Automatic annotation (TrEMBL):
One of its GO terms (cellular component) is cytoplasm. Belongs to the class I-like SAM-binding methyltransferase superfamily. RNA methyltransferase RlmE family. It is found in: Cytoplasm. This is Ribosomal RNA large subunit methyltransferase E. It comes from Chitinibacter fontanus. It catalyses: uridine(2552) in 23S rRNA + S-adenosyl-L-methionine = 2'-O-methyluridine(2552) in 23S rRNA + S-adenosyl-L-homocysteine + H(+). The keyword Cytoplasm applies. The keyword ATP-binding does not apply. Gene3D superfamilies: Vaccinia Virus protein VP39. Residues 28-203 form the Ribosomal RNA methyltransferase FtsJ domain. PANTHER family: RIBOSOMAL RNA METHYLTRANSFERASE, RRNA METHYLTRANSFERASE 2, MITOCHONDRIAL. Its EC number is 2.1.1.166. Keywords: Cytoplasm, Methyltransferase, rRNA processing, S-adenosyl-L-methionine, Transferase.
Amino acid sequence: MAGINSSSAWLHEHVNDQYVQMAKKEGYRARAAYKLLEIDEKDKLLKLGLWVADLGAAPGSWCQVAMKKVGKNGRVFALDILEMDPIRDVEFVQGDFREEEVLNRFNALLNGRQVDLVICDMAPNMSGNTVTDQARSMYLCELALEFAQEQLKPGGHFLVKVFQGSGFQEYMKAMRETFATVVSRKPKASRDRSSEVYLLGKQKKA
């Protein structure tokens, strides 16, 4: 068995390296770009002219993907507690998503208009304590859902990274109350050993 495990571990790392190499080659800031690209290929979320809010955007690979897809008539608004090097045409607010003042600054960019799509690849700083990390992660997901409930136009979509564990089923239930359909996605670029999945809420209810 040990031989099988070590060879599969090698293969696993090799596959993951492939995304790192591809990101370098294709100019994306992180391998996470391929998660969004794969989900978008399946679900056709990003279209020309859309307004997109990217929560937890740094280092910016999802913004890069979104900006290419929405084109010059679209808008991408990004928010993160971390610094992010500028990306052409992406409007960025640096600050803590949990603070009202930061959210107000972000909302000011939208200038009263609701967005077509909210994407969120946020994760808390991991402490190594599974219970604490799960609670922090779910809290960020809840804030992202609240943001989508307020800032997403009817019929709009919401894509969020969620870690499976305590609170997951309750979160799915809350999403189903807001969206006509909720589906789960596990893109190939998502590490097998990670409990992360992406939940996609389609067609926000009026």
